[in-house]
Every structure is written in C-alpha cells, then in structure tokens.
C-alpha cells in the first residue's frame, strides 16, 4: 500500500497484476442482468401445459386429503388391534403427507413456470407516501394479481382453494378420536359415570392396597384409584376407567377447609379427595403445594385451591375439580360415598 500525497488518493497495489486501484473511485452499478425468457413465456402451449400441471397437483392434494379421511374410517383405531393401529397411522400419515407435498410442489411450479419473473427496482424512501403513492401501491397489487394469474387463471385458483380446504379435513377428522364415543351414550354421560360407587374402597395407585384414614398424615397427598380397578385387564378397559376415576387425596386440618353446608359430609376429618383430571384439557393434576394448599396442572399451569372446594385460582381451567364424597367403613378404611356428582375432565365435554 502506498500514499500519493500530491493527489490525496490512497492506492492499493494488487499482489499479482501490479495495478493500482483508487478506493475513492465510485463503483459503477452493473445494473440488472439481461432478462431470459422461459419456454412458458415463448410458447402458449407450454404455458398451458404448466398450468394443467399445477392444478392437477392441487387436485391430487384434494384426493390425498379425502383418502386420509377415508383411511380413518376404513382402519378404525378403536379396534385396538396392532394391524389396525399400524394401518391407521400409515395410511392417514401418507394421505396427509401427499396432500401437503402436492400443494407445495404445485405452488413452487406455479411461481417458477407461470408467474411473472421479470426483475423490478423500487426506490426506497423514508417517509410516508402521499395519496398518489398509496394509490400507486393499490395499482401495484392489481398488477401483481395480473402477473401471478391468480385472478385470471380460475382453474389454478379454484384448485388451490379446494386443496387448502381439503387439507384441513384430515386434522378435523382426527379430533373425533379424542372424544369418548359410544353407540348409545354421549361423552357427557360416559364422563358422569366412573367406577366409584357407594362403599368402593380407596386404594393406593398403583399398588391397589386399601387406605386407612389413620395412615393419612397431616399435609400428605395420596394418588388414589378404586380398589376394584385391579380386577380389570388392559384389554378390558383398565386404562380408560383409570383415566376417569383417578383421584388425588389430601389431608388438612378440618378448620382449614371452606365447605358449603351440603358438602360438609363429603370430607372426613380434614381428608378431601378430588379428581386428578384437569378441567381444562384433561391433563393429570398431580402437583400439590402443601403451604398454599394448591394443586397445579403441569400442562398449562391451572391452579386449584384444595382448601376451598378445589376452585380455580389461576390458569385457563374454567371450573373446579370434581370432588369425590368419602367416609370410612367399620374398620376405618376410606370408602367413597358415591360417584362424582358432576362429569370429570375438560369442560368442553359438557357441551352438546
């Protein structure tokens, strides 16, 4: 590097060429490269063929979405058989994958082969545009619509709309499997009935051993299931019944409980039992904070006050946890007085 004091210009000596270049010289704007026309720009037949390819891909997406919905019905996961579950996952997954893939390939081919690919230069300005400029923007959107062919190429536009709408259907269909369903009973009826009945012993989860009231110390929390649940096998509804009947039991001082008059006999000597199924979306409420007497749902942080009938004190849950009425038998073991007096689980199951 050398300095030319007479001209006030700094020069850089190239290592191989021996040329000196002034860094003060402005770099000339090379401009845009020459525009290369595509075959679809030159030949209307090629453009028409590209258009047919695009809307064919969109209609393939529609067919794949419909197939995913059909696969859900043809291979019901409720059969609980390995081959049915495997086929359900495989064919629904393939349908959704092809539906989304066809939309993606079609959109890319549309943009590369049919939409205008001319380059434009737009000068930026730091201030809000005038009314004339804003009107020009509206005109630019109209021009873009014309160049994309969105408004003019009805087959592509309509097939895209059909593909996008159809792609939602498999997901909507799969939501059906989240709700308990029965030929005769509604979800609300099913969730109103659990394995808890009058005289059903409270048992430790998962051991299934009975619990004496004297063994429940102050401040302790027990995970509880109906004793008769142990008689069910996994193929005979064990998990389904447990999901509805699981309970968390806590002991506090009786004077710490806020109870309505009609619920005073639902607890026993400060021992209360509440459904573990969160009333938001059904996650298990299993975290107990002894000092605040709050139950916490780990999924979305809903909190319930055990000392006040498990009322919601924080989070998205919309109603208290259902309480299980309890008492003791002649031997001092804890038993249920009855089933829950309201449906367990998320509040939306109550909507007909």
TrEMBL record:
Belongs to the Rieske iron-sulfur protein family. Residues 1-44 are annotated as: Disordered. Its main location: membrane. This is Cytochrome bc1 complex Rieske iron-sulfur subunit. Residues 244-335 form the Rieske domain. The gene is qcrA. It is found in: Cell membrane. Keywords: 2Fe-2S, Cell membrane, Disulfide bond, Electron transport, Iron, Iron-sulfur, Membrane, Metal-binding, Oxidoreductase, Respiratory chain, Transmembrane, Transmembrane helix, Transport. It is a multi-pass membrane protein. InterPro entries: QcrA_N, Rieske_2Fe-2S, Rieske_2Fe-2S_sf, Rieske_Fe-S_prot, Rieske_Fe-S_prot_C.
